[in-house]
Amino acid sequence: MTDAFLLSAWSAGVFIAPLLTALPAYRPTTWWLWPALRVFWQLGGGMLAGVAAARIVGVPQQGQLVAAALLGAVGALLCIAPLVAMTRGPTRVEGDLRGLRHTTATTRSPVSRPQRVDRVEVELHTTNGPVRLTFRGLQGSYVERRLADLRPGAHVVLWLLAPLRALVHVEPA
Predict the structure, then answer these.
(1) Per-residue pLDDT of the chain (173 residues; tens, 9 = 90+)
(2) Among 142, 32, 158, 139, which Cα is nearest to 84's?
(3) Which CATH number goes with the domain that contains 168?
(4) What is the enclosing helix (H) or strand (E) of 115?
(5) pTM for the complete prediction?
(6) 165 DSSP assignment
(7) N or C, which terminus of the chain has less Cβ within 10 Å?
């Protein structure tokens, strides 16, 4: 019973765990929490699911370690972006706000109904030239709310988790 539960929990996590890094509004003091939970769920869950799958099939203990390593490697591939985000930490982008553009696109799929996806593009003029940052979905809405009060041309410092395309903090200068 517990082996089937472990295998089911990790299998569901393959599809659900990316929401752990896509949905939350990050904070400067706890930016690492959501990526760490995703890594724990996908990497640790993959190793436990490997052992559980090997037990269900009846593989001896040495084979269970191989199965744990294989599904652990799959879990590591699934959570590469949060692993990179955790090792690099937030990236500082400083510049003058040139524009904030909100667009809504509709995705079409033969197996589901059309979905609306919000996208926000932030244009900054930095010392290295113009930079365009794109945020999608809930992160886009969050960025738009955080930058709505700033006038064009305002000097701003953004702290980003670049691999996850997530805003951590805004410092108006």
Answers:
(1) 588 888 888 888 888 888 888 888 888 999 999 999 999 989 888 898 998 989 888 889 888 899 999 999 999 999 999 999 999 999 999 999 999 998 887 877 788 778 777 889 999 999 989 999 999 888 888 898 899 888 889 999 999 998 888 999 998 77
(2) 32
(3) 2.40.50.660
(4) strand 112-126
(5) 0.79
(6) T
(7) N
